[in-house]
Every structure is written in structure tokens, then in C-alpha cells.
Amino acid sequence: AQKVTQAQTEISVVEKEDVTLDCVYETRDTTYYLFWYKQPPSGELVFLIRRNSFDEQNEISGRYSWNFQKSTSSFNFTITASQVVDSAVYFCALSEAWYSGGGADGLTFGKGTHLIIQP
Amino acid sequence: GAGVSQSPSNKVTEKGKDVELRCDPISGHTALYWYRQRLGQGLEFLIYFQGNSAPDKSGLPSDRFSAERTGESVSTLTIQRTQQEDSAVYLCASSPQEGVSYEQYFGPGTRLTVT
Fold it and tell me: Which residues on neighbouring strands pair with residue A15, listed in sequence order?
């Protein structure tokens, strides 16, 4: 069965520091998708990125970057020059491919990392 | 356009009562998902709909939980004889199509407190 582990329960950094959120996953499938979501204090989950298992290219979007490494089953998320508005709970999630028999059975989420950016 | 909406935003109920939670997906989204988020925890998948059909109900925690969906529109999650362990935020998400590659758009959730 699939599993997502976010070992860091809470991280606190000072504004402008870089911070990396770790995500390690387990899956039987060779085809799967990985996601990151942000949950600010308001509570509504915000989609950040989707990555399929065949695309190991790192991605950068502004101050955000993602490092996908199949060899270590990791999909880490880095925020560069953090800002107070980045404070939120960040979730990593996994979805296995439909045709591999996993079914469209929703996303498997990690327990989240609470990121606190101090001014 | 309008996002996923859920109602009520907060619900306090007494143990043993039934509750009904509502989700309005983004218009045109065929897939709809329900999740539960307990305090300080990640999201736990409950059920998904493709149209008004629910192929996978394996995530429902007990037979006290049921869900239905009208066409490709509103869905309701019903919890009968609520227990204190049902206290959580219930999140609904919709997706343009069924399939694991599509991102899910989440609603603000319903915070359920069972006293």
C-alpha cells in the first residue's frame, strides 16, 4: 500500500532563511503522481505542484523548488528566502496510477509539516 | 470562477445525533472526493464519486458513514449516530476528471464537533 512520510512535524525559521521540507513515499507502482499542498491558517488547501513518476526534472517556481529523486523515493520542497506569508502546514501527497489497479482512490497524504516563519 | 463550497462551515452536535455535510463542487468537475482531517493530522481519504457513482467506498470508517451525489453536482456526507471520534474537519475536493493525475481543488471544510 502507498504511504507518505513527512518526518518534520514542525519547522521554525527566521524570515529570509531557506527551508527544505522533506517527503518520502512508498508505492508498489511504477506510475504514480506526487503533489504538494499548502494549508494556510484559513484552512483551505492550496495546490502547489504535481509531478509524475517519469519526470525527475527538478522544478522551480519563483521562490519554490522541488527535488524529485526516485532513487531515494523522495520529493522534497524548498522555499528560498522565506517570508512570513509562507507560514502554513504543507502536505505531500501520493496517488497511484488508475490502470495499475490502484483505482482512483484519492490521495494519500503525509501528516504535514507545520512551517513557522518568524519575522 | 467559484471554487468548491461546503456547508455548514462549523457544526456542533451531540453524541448519537445524525449530521449531514454538504459539498458543492466546481461546476463541470466530474470527480468529487471526501476526506477527513483530524486535529494535527494529515488528510484521510473517505470516498470518491465519478458522476453520481461511488466505485470506491473502502475509506469510509464505519457503516455509520454514507455519501451520495446528485448527478455531477452536490454531494452529501451523512454520519449517523455520531461519536466523539468523528470530530474532525471534513474536506471535499473536486477534479475536472477522474484520474490520479489531476489535481484536486479543495473546499474550506466543515469542522464537526461531537460533544
Answer: none
> From the CA of B41, how many Å to the nearest CA of chain A?
5
Query: Rounded to an integer, what is the distance from CA B79 to the centroid of its chain?
Result: 11
Dump pLDDT digits (tens) for B17-35: 999 999 999 998 888 999 9
Tens digits of residue pLDDT in A39-88: 998 888 999 998 888 888 888 889 999 999 999 999 999 999 999 999 99
Question: How do strand A19-21 and strand A64-69 relate by DSSP bridges?
Answer: unpaired
- The Cα angle at residue B17 between residues A42 and B109, in degrees rounded to 5: 15
CB B90 within 8 A of CB B35: yes
* Helices and strands in chain A, H and E counts: 0, 12
Give the E-state strand segments of B4-114 in sequence order: 5-7, 10-13, 19-24, 31-37, 43-50, 53-56, 65-69, 75-79, 88-95, 105-106, 110-114
CB contact under 8 A, A45 and B100: no
